[in-house]
Design goal:
single chain; 274 residues; alpha/beta; globular; disordered N terminus
């Protein structure tokens, strides 16, 4: 009986140790001054965050069209392991059902470019132990979030040092009648210049504070594969350094579950080399 008690206490101690060291996942409400509302956000902290007095780089991970802040942690729970492996904080903000991460010229309630590029990083840096520098911030996402990540990083490269896209809608001009884009950007004729300047494939022609490190990939059976190939060609023509990969896969979570590990590894190398 004595041995059993000791064995039980030993297991309890191990269990408590695991609980203490486990990566933590919090869902918080973050107030947006620019949109005058609270918005949910998932924060993933590496296990060492609780026991070490370290500051950490941050990856901002965006969801796709019709998604929300909880998509990544619910669909790919192993991203908790990546936070531990790469020693970084992962932040999953909400980008609304179809904001496309723009500040809409036709709907004043949609200000997600400002929210993601300024309000969220400011809050995260003020509350958590981060390395509050552009070289310690990366942003990536899938589909709508892939476009949003590169769009925001390019326009706010003083905030984000690296950006990534998985199956990104890198050329929105092909989808003027889909995904409620017209509700965000407005009339395709009246706002034709805004449409042009809002597409990632065009925005890389404009000057930026400092070219962010870019990584993007797409499945060979994805509906957006041709646009991603054209984006790759465009970057090559402009001599903009980037990492582009095609892998077998479709526009689905099975593909993104695999792709996210490569993106986070790319960012870890960027953080380390910086």
């Amino acid at each position: 009986m004595k041995n059993c008690k000791i064995y039980f206490l030993g297991l309890l101690a191990i269990s408590l140790h695991v609980v203490v060291l486990a990566a933590s996942v919090d869902t918080i409400n973050m107030y947006s001054n620019v949109m005058k509302k609270e918005i949910k956000c998932v924060i993933i902290l590496p296990e060492s965050y609780k026991i070490k007095n370290n500051n950490y780089p941050v990856v901002y991970l965006l969801h796709g069209y019709a998604g929300d802040y909880a998509n990544w942690i619910s669909k790919v729970p192993e991203i908790k392991n990546y936070a531990d492996e790469f020693q970084e904080i992962i932040v999953c903000p909400d980008g609304h059902f179809n904001s496309w991460y723009f500040d809409s010229p036709v709907d004043s309630s949609i200000r997600y470019e400002t929210y993601i590029s300024y309000e969220v990083p400011h809050y995260i840096d003020s509350v958590y132990k981060t390395i509050a520098k552009r070289k310690a911030r990366a942003i990536c996402g899938l589909s709508m979030g892939g476009h949003g990540a590169i769009f925001i990083a390019w326009r706010h490269s003083d905030i984000f040092g690296a950006a990534g896209s998985m199956s990104g809608v890198v050329d929105i001009s092909h989808f003027k009648t889909k995904y409620e884009l017209i509700n965000v950007i407005g009339d395709t004729v009246k706002n034709s210049e805004i449409w042009k300047n809002s597409s990632v494939i065009n925005i890389v022609e404009t000057k930026t504070y400092q070219t962010p490190e870019l990584i993007f990939d797409c499945g060979t059976s994805d509906i957006f594969i041709e646009a991603n190939r054209e984006f790759n060609k465009k970057l090559l023509q402009l001599k903009i350094p980037h990492d582009y990969t095609e892998r077998p896969g479709m526009h689905d979570w099975q593909y993104w579950q695999n792709a996210i590990g490569y993106q986070l590894l790319f960012f870890r190398k960027y953080f380390t080399d910086s």
